[in-house]
Design a protein that fits this description.
4-stranded antiparallel β-sheet; 26% strand; Ubiquitin Conjugating Enzyme; zinc-finger; Znf_RING/FYVE/PHD; 4 domains; alpha+beta; 17 strands
Amino acid sequence: MIDGNLSLLIKYPLISTKNRNGRIHYNGRVMCGSHDTDLHVIEEKINGNVTFTLKTTFGPEINEKIAKSESQNIVDFLDNIVTLLARTPQNHANSYKRVLHEYFEFTRFHLNIRNSHISSDLQLIKVTTVDEGRREHRLEISVDLDEVRDVFQPLNVELPEHFVKALGGKFSNLTEIYRRFLGVLEELQPFFDVMDEVDGNCGVLDPETPTRGHCHRRIWLDQNLSVIVTIDPLNVRARPELRFFGPERLVHQHLDELNEKLEEWNDRGDFLEELLKILSLEKFPQKPKTDRDVLMDVGECCICFSLRLDEKMPEIICGNKSCENFFHVQCLYEWLSSVNSKRILNQIHGQCPNCEKEISCPLPDDNAVT
């Protein structure tokens, strides 16, 4: 009996044992597939033979099959139950009722929901709401019909990473998810306001289609120069992180000017005015419209003649003042790899495809030395 109890403890540690009136009661949980199942089994001796009776109801068909199974001990009996339940499709009738009731009560109670939708299989809920600035925000919620308690989980939320994590986890009701979502939106109103101002007043190169989760904007400054402005959503009035992209001579020139202005940033001032001040600009320049007859637009890769490759913009610029062409890392790496070039650690060195002056680029992530 000691060996049997030890085997039970090792294989089914969540099953407890109690001896009542000559019967042994087994209560607890076992793992069946991807979900836990509560069980109650009684072991007793009848005419000298040990029998096991399942007191938990899984439906007439399943319970009948379990009753007919032969088991030498409690571990064997539990094994038979787990195997049978794992092979049996889940009956989601009760889950369907619960989800539909929850969804109906949720949409009826929250009047600020612009629109909502639940999929025909009841496994996905989509909700759209509007914030104080009349901006639409979408929330998608997955439904796990196999879960007993916490069946709802937010997913595909377009918010800065820090706030996406705050909405992580599973929930037992839709109202709690939506309440947290509205709380996050309220906290992010200053951030959304600033990003809208930047989008409306600057020539934004990247992201091509900004979402509410993007905290950066790559802004066009000149034909060969741009700056990435990264804003802290937790402190939108703080000085943003700035990173220039362009020929080395232009980058150094603007960095020197920026360093002289950094301390002039005023957290209480208007964000765009403060940004103009430290960039030494009177207004934000707008990128000229592209002539359709031009083979390559400003800032596009000199090899593939496109601005984006796998959602990435060109980051390598030839250092030759008379060239200063742009290249995607992947494009330049493949070009240099196909000709006579040198690889030194995580850099590849060779000649510019356009002017044949020396140029180098880092290895793409999947080719880097670790």
